[in-house]
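User: Could you write out the 3D structure of this protein bound to glutathione? I've included everything you need below.
Assistant: Certainly. Input first, then the structure.
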Amino acid sequence: MMEHYAIHSAHSVMPTRWTSFRRHVPSRQRCAPAMSQHKKPSEAGYQKIVAHAASLETSLKLHYFGFPGRAEASRLCLTVGNVPYEEVIYTQGSWPEHKGQMPFGQVPVLEMEDGKMLAESLAIERYVAKLAGLYPEDPLQAGLADQAAFLSDIWEVFAHTIYMPLAQKISVRRELLVTKIAPKLQNLSKLLETSGEYVAGDKLSYGDVVVFVNLCSLSSGILPGVPTDLLKDYPVLKVYRNRIACIPAIKEFYEKRGEGFRAAFKPDAA
Ligand SMILES: N[C@@H](CCC(=O)N[C@@H](CS)C(=O)NCC(=O)O)C(=O)O
């Protein structure tokens, strides 16, 4: 039995914004030119997914593991924008069999309806943000959204600690919290003090979604050595995180999937 499985988004009806996007952009132009054409996932896995997808009007598939990680911002953009999608979730056991089918041997990967695959989480985030109407059209607003997203990135800081023995991991991460993460959080706080409710203009953009995901991930307990109450020292970030968590589509997403590390993505307890 295959160890990966598909989860469907709650939307079985194609929403207006998505319909109009598809109407105006021919299918082949919806994929970036640099996107590579790779084999689909193995026959058995693929058939299983298609069987689940038969009732959907789209077949955008987001390939990743079950945890939030590098796919969560894309999941949220698709959800907030009402863009139908399904997920292909790999486990530690099933992943090695599929690694070779991904463009760069890693996930997340977004598979288009014609089988083309887009890799690299940042590229996927921007692509789905555009589909979702969350990527600002104004170049400066887009730059501001990118600025916040890049500033809040925590994964690069901790990437080299992932395979360390636990004790070493904890001690190195505590050091990184002081040397690398605290300055990032202070800068983010300053940015939010001046930018208003959102990081780019007066409405939610993908920049907010990425900052939200990074703040929640950081304090979710997924990184041993990083305390879950980290944001208590950053009141501006705490209020901001909670405001984004209270956006109805996001709140609803975590009401359905708020187990484990995702508990930290919910609104603050009243
Ligand atoms: N730069 C890539 C990094 C992707 C990455 O590191 N993916 C990890 C999971 S977070 C992965 O696929 N690990 C399994 C492997 O490398 O075999 C991105 O941002 O998408």
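The CA atoms of residues 30 and 188 lie 33 Å apart.
User: Perfect, thank you.
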